[in-house]
Specification:
By secondary structure, this protein is of the alpha+beta class. It folds into three domains: 139 residues, Particulate methane monooxygenase, b subunit. Chain: A, domain 1 (Jelly Rolls, Sandwich); 79 residues; 127 residues, Particulate methane monooxygenase, b subunit. Chain: A, domain 3 (Immunoglobulin-like). It has eight helices and 22 strands. α3 runs antiparallel to α6. The structure holds copper (II) ion.
Length: 436
C-alpha cells in the first residue's frame, strides 16, 4: 500500500500515483488469473460422491431398482423417484451406528420441490428410525421449479454420518407458460402459495435490520478516524474517547443511542406483530417413525466371499464367492450391487431395468447357470466398468481394503434373496504415486 500521512490530509504526489498504478496492476493480474481459471474449468457434473472415501460408499449402503421418471418435464410437472436402499450389515465400525435416517432427493440447489415422500409405504415428513440390515423402499414426488438440465439422485442422510448418494439420472425441465405454483391448505382451512408465502415480509424485515447494521458500519468507517487512522487510535489509552481530537464525540454517542433505540423498537414491533398475527403457535415438531419391515427374501443361498482382485488399468473387479443352494429349487445369481452401482447377469434389456443407465453394468458369472438344490459352487464374478473409476468405489489406497456388496439370487418363481457379502480386495496393478 502507498505511504499515507498519519493525521493530516492525504497529499497527492508522484509517488502516491505510482503506488496507485501498482495497486491497479495487482488487481488486473488477480482478475486475469481468475478469468483464466474460470475459462478452463470444466462443468461440474457429479455431486461430490466421488470425493467420498470408497468405504463410505460400498460398506454403508446399496441402492437398487432406482428409477427417475419422466426425464423430460415442464416447470410445475411431477417427477417420481423410486427405489430401495439397504443399510448394509457391513456398516463400518468407524462410523456411528445408524439409528436415524432420512431419504431425500439430491439435486443441485432448490430447482425442484419435494411434494410427497413415502418410506416403506408410510408418508415420511421427516426422518425415520433406521438400522443396520434395514431395507428402505422409497417413493418421492418432485415438482420441477427451475428450468434446466438437472442431475437427480436419491440419497439417504444418516445421523452422524452424512448423506450417502444413490445413482443419478438427468432430468430436463423446460420452461412453462404457467408460472410455478405450490398451493398448500393449512389446518385452519386457508390455502396459501407456499413458494412465495411470507417472502416479501421476510425480505424487507431482514433488509431493515441490514440497513441499520450498514449505517453503523459506515458511520464508524467512512468518516471517523477510529479505523482510518489506526496509528493514532492505538496510541490512546483503552478507555479514552479522545473527543478533543474528534475520535468519539458526544454527538457520536447520541447517534449510537439512536441506532440502539431503533433496534429495540424493531424488536418490540416484531414480537408484537408475531404474537398478534399468529396467536396460536406450535413448536417445531418432528414426526419420526419406524418403517415397516421389508425382508431380504426367503433364505435361498449361503454365500461367502473368498477374496477379490481389482485391476485399476482395465477397471476390472474379480470376486470369488462360494454359494450353497439351501432350497428345493434351482437358484441363479442375477445381480451384484456395490453402493450406487448395479451389475446385471443378463442382456441389455435387463440392465436397462436395473436403474439409471450410467450406474448399471454387466456382471459376468463363471460358471453361469442355475445352482441345483444342495449344490455348492465356487463362482467367479467379473465386472469391468468405468463406474469403479468415476465413482471411486474400490479402495486401493486405504488401510482397510474391503468392499461390501449385495448379491441378488432368484429362483425362477418370482422368489429372490439379497445376501450381503464382504470381501478383501487385492490390487493387481500398482501405479506410482508422486506428490499431488
Ligand atoms: Cu449427480
Amino acid at each position: 500500500m502507498g505511504k499515507r500521512s498519519v493525521l493530516g490530509s492525504e497529499r497527492v504526489n508522484a509517488s502516491s500515483i505510482l503506488y496507485l498504478l501498482e495497486d491497479m496492476f495487482t488487481l488486473f493480474g488477480v482478475l486475469f488469473v481468475l478469468a483464466v481459471i474460470v475459462a478452463n474449468t470444466p462443468n461440474a457434473f457429479a455431486h461430490g460422491e466421488a470425493a467420498d472415501e470408497p468405504f463410505l460408499k460400498n460398506m454403508t449402503t446399496a441402492f437398487f431398482n432406482v428409477s427417475v421418471s419422466p426425464t423430460e418435464i415442464e416447470v410445475g410437472e411431477p417427477v417420481k423417484v423410486t427405489g430401495s436402499v439397504k443399510i448394509l450389515e457391513t456398516w463400518p465400525h468407524t462410523l456411528e451406528t445408524p439409528e436415524i435416517a432420512s431419504i431425500m432427493p439430491v439435486v443441485p440447489g432448490p430447482v425442484f420441490v419435494l411434494k410427497e415422500r413415502f418410506v416403506n409405504g408410510t408418508a415420511a415428513i421427516g426422518s425415520f428410525f433406521a438400522q443396520k440390515g434395514g431395507i428402505y423402499e422409497f417413493e418421492m414426488e418432485l415438482v420441477g421449479k427451475e428450468p434446466g438440465n438437472w442431475h437427480v439422485h436419491p440419497g439417504i442422510a444418516v445421523y452422524g454420518t452424512g448423506t450417502l448418494i444413490g445413482p443419478g439420472e438427468w432430468v430436463t425441465v423446460e420452461p412453462s407458460a404457467e408460472p410455478f405454483s405450490f398451493p398448500l391448505t393449512l389446518l385452519s382451512g386457508e390455502t396459501i402459495e407456499l413458494s412465495t408465502y411470507g417472502g416479501a415480509f421476510v425480505w424487507w424485515w431482514s433488509f431493515a435490520g441490514f440497513v441499520l447494521g450498514v449505517a453503523w458500519i459506515l458511520y464508524w468507517t467512512a468518516n471517523k478516524r477510529t479505523v482510518t487512522n489506526l496509528a493514532v487510535t492505538v496510541q490512546l489509552p483503552v478507555n479514552d474517547d479522545a473527543p478533543d481530537i474528534g475520535l468519539i464525540t458526544p454527538r457520536d454517542h447520541m447517534w449510537m443511542n439512536v441506532i440502539v433505540g431503533v433496534t429495540l423498537v424493531m424488536l418490540v414491533i416484531g414480537w408484537t406483530y408475531a404474537t398478534s398475527n399468529a396467536p396460536v403457535r406450535w413448536p417445531q415438531q418432528t414426526d419420526w417413525f419406524t418403517p415397516e419391515f421389508i425382508s431380504s427374501g426367503e433364505k435361498m443361498a449361503e454365500a461367502q466371499a473368498s477374496g477379490a482382485t481389482y485391476d485399476e488399468a482395465s477397471e476390472t473387479l474379480e470376486m470369488k464367492v462360494q454359494v450353497t443352494n439351501v432350497v428345493e429349487s434351482d437358484i441363479e445369481l442375477k445381480q451384484l450391487t456395490i453402493a450406487m452401482a448395479t451389475f446385471v447377469n443378463g442382456p441389455e434389456a435387463e440392465q436397462a431395468q436395473a436403474g439409471p443407465r450410467d450406474f448399471v453394468g454387466r456382471l459376468e458369472v463363471q460358471p453361469d447357470g442355475p445352482i441345483t438344490p444342495g449344490e455348492t459352487k465356487e463362482l467367479t464374478l467379473t465386472v469391468s466398468s468405468a463406474i469403479f473409476g468415476t465413482e471411486r468405489l474400490i479402495p486401493t489406497q486405504a488401510p482397510q481394503q474391503f468392499i461390501g456388496a449385495v448379491l441378488r439370487f432368484e429362483n425362477g418363481n418370482e422368489g429372490h434373496e439379497l445376501v450381503t457379502v464382504r470381501s478383501n480386495v487385492v490390487p493387481t496393478q500398482f501405479r506410482s504415486t508422486y506428490l499431488p
